[in-house]
Amino acid sequence: MNPIxxxxxxxxxxxxxxxxxxxxxxxxxxxxxxxxxxAPGDAQLTACPTLYWEERGAAFxxxxxxxxxxxxxxxxPAEPDxxxxxxxxxxxxxxxxxxxxxxxxQADHEKQRLGVGSGKTALDLARGNEAP
Length: 132
Prior knowledge:
The chain has a 5-stranded antiparallel beta sheet, with helices on one face. With 132 residues, the chain is an alpha+beta fold.
């Protein structure tokens, strides 16, 4: 038996509502489980319910690490090094805050990957021009 309860329908709705707001379309999440080390130095791995989705070349997971405890991370499946990225915060006590921080972190990372800087327009990016 898993000591951490699965995502409730309201929690899943909240995540999918955040995704619809971010992407302007319905993004379906998939239920999964991941094994995590819940406490620093803890040798035991714990199975945690997870919501997974992919959008714009990135894959995302939101992990339920306990009652009212959330973790988020993203990665790029096409990258051979398989590096994972987070929000800079190890855990959240608010699911909406976790999801929004995760989406913002990935959006910022996507801008860096594309070399988007202040002052560039879509036309500059399409032409490969630097900002004035």
